[in-house]
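Please go through the sequence and fold tokens given here and tell me how the chain folds. Record follows.
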Amino acid sequence: MEVLVLLFVLGALVVVPLLILKVAIELLVGLLVLPFKIIGGLFKLAFGLLGAVFGVLFGGIGLVLGLVATVVVLVLLPLAPLLLLGGIVWLALKAAAPAAVRPV
């Protein structure tokens, strides 16, 4: 039993410094990487805000274009036959009118 306790104490004397060394190395690496993490967070924030602004902008443009398309389909498309007849009458009147003579 005493041998087991002695082995445990010797094992603890080996393992505890190794654990302290591991924690110290992790802390050192963490401190070395910290500025890059901060810069990365700032870039993520900046590009996130930029993406949100452009998303709202292009979303608004898409909404306006969608409304214009809806107006064209619902208002101007039913008037297309009348516009076609009006165009034909305008062409007939223009063709029947005498040509303007330009002075040279």
The helical segments are 2-76, 80-96. The two ends are 127 Å apart (CA to CA). Residues 11-92 form one domain.
